[in-house]
Amino acid sequence: MTDVSIDVRHVTRVEGHGNIAINVQDGEITRLELAIVESPRFFESFLRGRMYHEVPHITCRICGICSVGHTTTSVKAVEAALGITPSEQTVLLRKLILYGEELQSHFLHLYFLAVPDFLGVGSVIPLARTNPDVVKRALRMKKLANDICGAVGGRHIHPIAIHVGGVTHLPRDEELTGLKRRLEDCRTDLAETVGLFATLKPPDLRRDTEYMALKDAGGEYAFYDGDIVSTRDPTPTPVARYRERVIESVVRHSAAKHCRSPQSETYAVGALARFNNNHEQLHPKAKEAAKALGLQPPCDNPFHNNTAQLVESVHCVDASIELIDELLRRGLRLEPLVKPQRYGEIGAGAAEVPRGVLFHEFGIDRQGRVESANLIIPTGQNLANIEADMRAMVPKLIDSELSKGEIKLQLEMLVRAYDPCISCATHLLDIEWQGEGT
Amino acid sequence: MKPRIAIFSLTGCEGCSLAILELEDQLLDLLGAVEIVNFREGMTEKAWDIDIGFVDGAVSTPEDEREAKRFREACKTLVAIGSCACLGGINTLKNHQARDDYRRYVYGERAEWFPTQPARPLSSVVKVDYELPGCPMIKEEFLQFVKDVLAGRPFKLPDTAVCVECKKRGNVCLYEQGICCLGPVTRAGCNAICPSFGSKCEGCRGIVDREALLVAGVNLREQYDIPLEQVLADFRLFGAYQEGDLP
């Protein structure tokens, strides 16, 4: 193996700023870093001193792509601290907007960020000329997902109507029936998408990895609710005890902290982690899609995270249709926000957001102000695992016949397969030191 | 020749860049009218001779400052998009706290590894030709801006307050429910989206102007017994950088 130096400055088609730096000397990897060079954001500091009801409005600004996910996780954590139990209607509406965002983010990632690599182009833009039907389909699907978020939350980016204790706006019945019709039509678009992805050949990389996700005791494929499980430790741990399963550390080359678990130095979260832990709870149509795509649990090829995203999209479309039926059957009525039952405690919340399990924890003081905040972001949890994948990939890539450009592309594709959300990841708390200089 | 467009990001959530992609119905027409030549989040190719550059995010690190200058040099017209680039935005929450305190709270003893500075709008570092505020930027306003520029028409932000749009939509005033809303002092153009979905206006588009602020201050005190100081305190969420310019 020859000496190699790889330097990708700002990996493109990901959210936020990240670099890849790899040096190989005499066949030894002397440096391998996915450097997170996004500015530190300090949200945990921002939150201190703000009133509890402002928390979801502040945390949603962590990320434009997954702002519904941050909102959802925040309201759950604040409600846990304040002893609030939201109404059933509120939970149904929150699930619907969360499905909307899973779809929005998965469609964005599959079509705009990942597919160009497989079709050998630098972006989706040239596809508008060469494959206009594909681009129109992608836009139609993404718009539907945004409109679900808009109907429930007012807009997708930084939703307005989702509050601690309930919602301040209800979608009209005709909005819901319109969305249901479009979701039914979307099944055709999804079938074509499954057809397209079935023809793409993800690179072959297998590495024994721990996959962590929430699992819903009620039997739903977990997005909104559940306990923490993993493929190496399937015992459910309640979210309130998340620190037993997720151990953070600061590393020098990354403004986002790294994570490990009690079982593993690195682990993965995200669509593939959910699929590996919860595939039995998938909607039958999603199971059919997995079969058509050749995705079988347990799958330890990180490039199949994209495949799992598509399988989940099929699930979310049918789960949304069922939710809308349920909401229409019950009839919607505006409810007052549930008031705090207590102050002065700490509460944790979690949800499965597009890139994996997200944890928020807030301490609320006796005046209702935030005293402490801890946010653990899916991309932060994945960073060390991406580096471990690279370590496994690099020697094989260097020994292959691939050109340096092709090697770079494969490494970038690996990063993109995880769909990292770097702006989200650059602000984490709770520190356990790694060795000096790491 | 089609104008060459770039979309850049500094410190922020990139929601304003994403808002451009959320113009699903108009995106193909937009791609027909302009050429996007630099957009890290969406494409791999990069070019540095740019007619119109859009920048989201605040200037929050020494690196951001260098980047902002690089964007200015590369772009004939530079446009700040979103509250972060126009006002400093949500990032300015850290400006109220001691730097060592907020850094240590997040990174502990390793705080020195992560350089940071008070968050500022793009215009504090380089000349900015236009601003499209909002958290996120209003995508319809972005589209209007592009149409105006392509047609050689002047572009101007609304100079009325959110209250005006809120009244037009027939919403019940939040002050009548005892909620202090920033609608009377915030620049219109969002079609009063927050009050229309049951939330108060949080001032993400910035203060419409000083005069409106003073008038609103008098009205709010007389009508609802709310002092101007409370309105300004609420305004800190997105607009702390403006504080020095306020009464």
What do these coordinates show?
The complex is a heterodimer of chains A (438) and B (247). Chain A has 438 residues and is of the alpha+beta class. Helices cover 45% and strands 16% of the residues of chain A. Chain A has a 3-stranded antiparallel β-sheet, covered by helices on one side. In chain A, helix 6 (132-153) runs antiparallel to helix 7 and helix 8 packs across helix 10. The radius of gyration of chain A is 21 Å and the shape is globular. Chain B is of the alpha/beta class. Chain B has helices at 15-21, 24-33, 62-74, 82-87, 99-107, 139-151, 162-168, 193-196, 210-224, 228-239, and strands at 4-9, 35-39, 50-56, 75-81, 130-132. The chains are: A alpha+beta (438), B alpha/beta (247). Chains A and B meet through helix 1, helix 4 and helix 6 of A and helix 1, helix 2, helix 5 and helix 8 of B.
Radius of gyration of chain B: 19 Å
Oligomeric organization of the protein chains: heterodimer
- Note the run of SSEs of chain B as H and E: EHHEEHEHHEHHHHH
Order of helices and strands of chain A: EEEHHHHHHEEHEEEEEHHHEEEHHH
Instruction: Report the major sheet of chain A.
Output: 3 strands, antiparallel
The pLDDT mean of chain A sits at 91
Pick out its properties:
heterodimer; A: 438 residues; alpha+beta; 3-stranded antiparallel beta sheet; globular; disordered C terminus; B: 247 residues; alpha/beta
Q: What's the gist of this structure?
A:
The complex is a heterodimer of chains A (438) and B (247). Chain A has 438 residues and is an alpha+beta fold. Helix content of chain A is 45%, strand content 16%.
